[in-house]
Amino acid sequence: MEFANLVVASAMRRAGLDAWIPEGEGKWSLPLQFLPAGAGWVELMRLDPGVRVGLHRHTGEVHALNLAGERRLNDGRVLRAGDYVYEPAGNVDWWEATGKERLLVHVVVKGSVEYLGAHHSVLQRIDTADRIADYHRHCAAIGRRPHELV
């Protein structure tokens, strides 16, 4: 966990923040980089044990490296610190933080994320512009000037 704490501290400085961006009960994000031309984003995600990321589809590829904690994928695999997952464009899945420790994942997302409902209808689509807007809104709410993360 010591390595993960160093990564988080460095990412906080880079983003000009001193706290994670809340995204819901037991889920936070920390932006590292917004890719050029709206191609995607790189972030740290933190989830409390038991928090589930609902059914979603990626329009581009995703690379995810667990830094701390563990998560169970919808196919039953359990990923722990040091485990890596590649998800191709079009991948549909859900997953949840498990174990006793908070989950910390380094994620590279290309394209957008589409959260799905019945019959895979798109309930919400999140793209790079949305992630940038979230970061800027959070900075405004805490009285900080956003850093250039492009």
TrEMBL record:
Name of a matching Pfam family: Cupin_7
Domain ChrR-like cupin intervals: 19-92
Protein name stated in the entry: ChrR-like cupin domain-containing protein
Organism lineage string: Bacteria, Pseudomonadati, Pseudomonadota, Betaproteobacteria, Burkholderiales
